[in-house]
Specification:
The complex is a heterodimer of chains A (about 190) and B (about 200). Chain A has one domain: Jelly Rolls (Sandwich), CATH 2.60.120. Helices cover about 0% and strands about 50% of the residues of chain A. Chain A has strands at about 20-30, 40, 50-55, 65-70, 80-90, 90-100, 105-110, 120-125, 135-145, 155-160, 170-175, 185-194. Chain A has an 8-stranded antiparallel β-sheet, with no helix packed on it. In chain A, strands 2-11-4-7 form a 4-stranded antiparallel β-sheet, with no helix packed on it. With about 200 residues, chain B is mainly beta. Chain B has one domain. The chains are: A mainly beta (about 190), B mainly beta (about 200).
């Protein structure tokens, strides 16, 4: 017996018969002042299949790199878990995890004792964010190369939000005493078939 | 000159359209060539880099060199800027990490070369965030190539310390010997949200 039931969504094709993906910019945030603690993407439409968040940050935390935290739908009740592997400070390698916390860990953020022009980069893919039968899972790729204390890093990881609610808001934080600096930016993209 | 798709040709109004724009593509077809260089047309057209938030490079590469697996980038035609690199790589048997600071260059991928398994190419991607800002120019990238059980999967973080907008990108094979025929490089521009 064939256990696989093929699901073939109805999609529009381009003139040459190829199904085309559409990637649309939903919202861009560009910080033009100093010391803002939260970057919020709100009223996210549920009409896309996946989301991609691309951020570039610099904050005032005293160390070389800091943690980029995220909360979905402003929900501090449901649990978040995260894990990652990384290389750091040259030859260092590590992996670690956080379990069932009130914030998701989505990568690194360059801190305040580095050159003003240095920013972290994080690209986050949030798959099937509108599916109400799945807890939301995402992957992130994060890179930082600050000069101050050699705390450069490259990380790849994943995060889980134990909720099946459609994602309609993303709040990006560093710790409250280390707010984002001017030039911190982020754009949320929606990905769907045409 | 093609207007950007986010400009309504009849009214001139700004709209939001497809955010990813295919900017340029190069496939090595003749004698070995290195580096492969992409340059902004700087003409206000749909492929002018000054309108993009980010760039994204996708490549399928192999070099003519007999032993150098490293792919480097340089920006804006210069290798005089200071830089930093951090990498994590695995070859099927071990995982290693390290960092380099090659002047003005960003080490973004490992690729197969001429004495390795025939006809095998490696795949690489590279993100360039906020290319028109005054920030130092950072890149995060990943590469993978399997060579019948060996090869490398790797990821990289780089900074090249120039605050100038990125107006050209040169992709070098490490030894400068040249890319193999069939190597392909595709560059995409990523627009921000255009309408509030």
């Amino acid at each position: 017996m064939d256990d696989w039931f093929p699901l073939r969504p109805v999609r529009h094709s381009s003139p040459d018969g190829v199904v085309m993906a559409v990637i649309e910019a939903i919202q861009t945030m560009y910080l033009e002042v100093e010391n803002v603690t939260i970057m919020t993407f709100s009223s996210i439409p549920s009409t896309y299949e996946h989301l991609q968040l691309r951020v570039s940050t610099h904050d005032t935390h005293a160390t070389g790199t800091n943690t980029l935290y995220v909360r979905l739908n402003n929900d501090s009740t449901s649990y978040y878990s995260s894990h990652h592997m990384q290389a750091y400070s040259g030859s260092g390698t590590a992996g670690s995890a956080t379990t069932r916390t009130s914030l998701g860990y989505w990568g690194d953020a360059i801190g305040g004792n580095n050159l003003a022009g240095e920013y972290s980069t994080v690209v986050i893919d949030i798959q099937d964010y509108a599916n109400t039968n799945k807890s939301t899972v995402l992957t992130f790729l994060s890179g930082s190369c600050p000069d101050a204390d050699g705390s450069k890093s490259i990380k790849f990881g994943s995060s889980l939000w134990e909720s099946t609610t459609t994602v309609n808001e993303i709040d990006v934080y560093v710790i409250s005493s280390a707010p984002f600096q001017r030039g911190t930016s982020g754009t949320l993209y929606g990905i769907r078939s045409s | 000159m093609a207007l950007p798709a986010y400009i309504d040709e009849s009214t001139g109004a700004i709209t939001d359209s497809e955010a990813w724009v295919a900017v340029a593509s190069t496939t090595i077809a003749g004698s070995p060539a290195t580096p492969v260089t992409f340059t902004s047309p700087d003409d206000g057209s749909s492929t002018d880099w000054s309108q993009f938030m980010d760039l994204f490079l996708l490549a399928y590469v192999r070099s003519q060199d007999s032993g150098d697996p490293y792919t480097y980038l340089s920006l804006n035609g210069s290798t005089s800027f200071s830089s930093e690199n951090q990498y994590l790589q695995g070859n099927g048997g071990s995982v290693t990490a390290g960092g380099y600071a090659p002047s003005g260059k960003a080490w973004i991928w490992r690729h197969p070369y001429s004495t390795q398994t025939a006809n095998v190419f490696g795949v690489g991607i590279c993100h360039f965030p906020d290319i028109n800002s005054g920030k130092y120019k950072t890149m995060i990238s990943q590469s993978a190539s399997d060579l019948d059980g060996s090869g490398y999967a790797a990821m990289y973080s780089n900074v090249i310390r120039t605050s100038a907008p990125i107006s050209s990108i040169s992709v070098h094979d490490g030894a400068g010997t040249g890319w193999t025929i069939g190597s392909r490089f595709d560059l995409f521009g990523i627009l921000p949200r255009m309408v509030s």
